[in-house]
Amino acid sequence: MSVPTGKKFVNDVADVVAESLQGLVTANPHLTLLDGHKVVLRADLAEVSGQVALLSGGGSGHEPAHGGFVGKGMLTGAVAGDVFTSPPVSSILAALRTIWQEGQPSGILVIIKNYTGDRVNFGLAMERARAQGIHPCAMVVVADDCALTSQDRSAGRRGLAGTVLIHKIAGAMASKGKSVAQIAEYLDAQVLPNMATIGLSLTPCTLPGRGASFQLGPEDMELGLGIHGEAGVKRQRLGTSVECVRHMIQHMTDKKSATHLHIPDHQSVIVLLNNLGGTSNLEMGIIAHDVFKLAKAKRWNINRLYVAPVMTALEMAGISITIVKQEDGEILGHLDYPVLAPGWPKTPNCIPGPSKTFTPPEEPKTEENGSSAGQAFSRLALSLSERAIEFACEAIKSFENVLNSMDTGSGDGDCGTTLRRGAERLQIVAKVESLSSMTKIFAKISRIAEDDMGGSAGAMYSILFATAALHTRERAEPRDIAMAIQEGLKAVMKYGGAELGDRTMLDSLVPAFNTLRESLDLNAQAPIAALEKATIAAEEGAKATLKMKAGAGRASYVASSELKQPDPGAHAVGVIMRAVYQGVLKVASESGLKDD
After folding, report:
1. Which residue, among 108, 82, 83, 104, has the nearest Cα to 93 in the 3D structure?
2. Edge-to-edge, what's the strand order for the sheet holding 52-60?
3. At a CB cut-off of 8 Å and minimum separation 6, what does 221 contact?
4. What are phi and psi of 46, to 5 degrees?
5. Residue 499 and residue 38: Cα distance in Å, rounded?
6. Is the dihedral of CA 147, 148, 150, 156 positive or negative?
């Protein structure tokens, strides 16, 4: 039985690393490749003359590490192995010799992660380089993993995302003219003992051409895993973002663990939140906020917070958190030092904290008797509007399930529920607020559609009635109301992109209010009869959508053969119009009002 492989954008599995590096240098002209080797170098090697050169590297699949950190202010070069495989000695030695000859540095500092393959291969290449006269040439090994609870494993603590902070600090020191010995001593004394990293994953990763590195259930997460797809130290049930961050920090600082990092109250720290490759930016924002909150709760002072994918594990959905205790005043200057490396976060200084917020200005309040409140209703007009609202809202509520059912085949199946939310809110508002003009009614419906209905339908209704409200401020006779709605429909078509015949609510609204206006133009003294004709036009328009091809909205993505019912939005307009007409008719009957 074959093992399913992950989907990836590759040409040939054998060439993924070489082609990826070619893409890196193509997009970043300040970088170049070393012929015959998977080595990324600064194109301006001569600029490192008299300074310490920095070389790093390791297996690929951790991009942007390590090639993405080559550039002025960081690495001089990076050697890439195959995916999750240490680079060969020959490539490491070739990089050392090229940097020494072309760059003429004062020395070379090699920075690697604590993996056996990297230690052995880089170590052997360095011994050969020294034998060839490349000196001083020193090594710094990063072992920031704090997942292991004991120190009794021969391989020791793994090198993780903290390695990138070492790149940055060492790069700044080299640019400032520090010697190999000075840089190595500072890292060994001030940074490495005060740095720890813990990882957590929701999914495994898949190597090109191969299956998943390990298996995780849909409700599981893995704590303390490495960056090569190896399993972690603890598997537990999936929790919320804040719970995940809390588990990670608790493990990192657990005094029972031999690899824990002791962080006292009021300690100044630097935090790196690393994306392991497949965590969305949306999630990273949530996690960053939770990291900041939890650190503050522990009374730590976060002086820098970096949030970026710096050392990934292919497409693994997961994160790692690196914390460095700031034990001296120099480290921030090194981290803030200017750098030209494509993988380093571009946010200046990354100083966290509550940012300044702006309070939006208050919306202008409509004056009860001002022109913005519109033409006040007469007593009869107020009764007509109240009954029309009551009947329309009740009709919408009673048709909720019908409209949802109609919407199932062409949308989200929530047309009725969306309108019902708006209707219920309008009923509440009508009981406690004075809707004493058509302008106020339209403005209130617009706000309710925006705030309570939501979605594209809410937005369209909001535009419709907001525009109509503007056009009823001076006059609000029946013909003026019809013209105001027509202006609102123009705005809906302008911003929504739909037109008459696109199988939307417009196919009911447009004929209804065209009919209303035409009828009132012929006889302005017969508004009830005009409203009845408009209602019929709305209902006929809704029925006609059954034979229309959808040209807008979600229904436009559905095959015409699957649209077996009229458009629910158009049908809802017919329901509302019929209810309004019945409400008006009832008040007219009770008051003895008749058309002339």
Report:
1. 108
2. 31-33, 39-42, 77-83, 52-60, 107-113, 137-142
3. 200, 201, 202, 235, 236, 237, 238, 239, 244
4. -65, -20
5. 57
6. negative
The residue type at 207: L
- Chain centroid to Cα 116, Å, comes to 37
Contact by Cβ (8 Å): 261, 300: no
- pTM, to two decimals: 0.77
Domains and CATH numbers, the chain: 13-336 (3.40.50.10440), 371-591 (1.25.40.340)
Say if CB 133 and CB 101 are below 8 A apart.
no
3-state secondary structure 129-170: HHHCCCCCEEEEEECCECCCCCCCCCCCCCCCCHHHHHHHHH
Biggest CA pair distance of the chain:
112
At residue 277, φ and ψ (nearest 5 deg) are 130, -40
Dist CA 361 CA 2 (whole Å):
63
Q: Which two structure tokens, joined as six digits, stand for 289?
A: 């906020």
Report d(CA 539, CA 531) in Å as an integer: 12
Identity (one letter) of the amino acid at 116?
T
The CA-based angle 60-66-68, given to 5 degrees, is 115
Identify the pLDDT of residue 93.
Answer: 97
Q: Amino acid identity of 460? A: M
- Residue 476 in tokens: 């609000």
| Angle between helical axes of 478-496 and 438-448 (0-180°, round to 10) | 30
* pLDDT less than 50: residues of the chain: 1-3, 367-371, 553-563
The DSSP H or E segment spanning 220 is strand 220-223
The strand ranges marked E within 495-581 are none
DSSP state of 75: B
Report residue 142: phi and psi, to 5°: -95, 125
Phi, psi dihedral angles at 457 (to 5 degrees): -65, -45
The HSE-up count of residue 374 (CA atoms within 13 Å, CB side) is 27
Under DSSP, the state recorded for 177 is T
Active site residue 228: yes
492 near 498, Cβ under 8 Å?
yes
Catalytic residue among 62, 228, 251, 471: 228
* 245 close to 320: Cβ distance less than 8 angstroms: no
Measured distance CA(285)–CA(307) in Å, rounded: 8
Measured between its terminal Cα atoms, the distance across the chain in Å is: 85
Q: Which two tokens stand for residue 281?
A: 């930016």
Q: List Cα–Cα distances, 15 to 65, 208, 259, in angstroms.
A: 18, 10, 38
Whether the CB-CB separation of 129 and 105 falls below 8 Å is answered with no
Pull the structure tokens for residue 76.
């001089």
Distances (CA, A) of 117 to 81, 122, 314: 10, 8, 19
Name the token pair of 387.
């009954």
Q: How many CB atoms lie within 10 A of CB 369?
A: 8
Compute, in degrees rounded to 10, the torsion defined by CA atoms 31, 37, 39, 42: -40
Name the DSSP letter for residue 102: I
Alpha carbons within 13 angstroms on the beta-carbon side of residue 424 total 12
* Angstrom distance (rounded) from CA 376 to CA 441: 11
For the record, the structure tokens of 470 come out as 């503007």
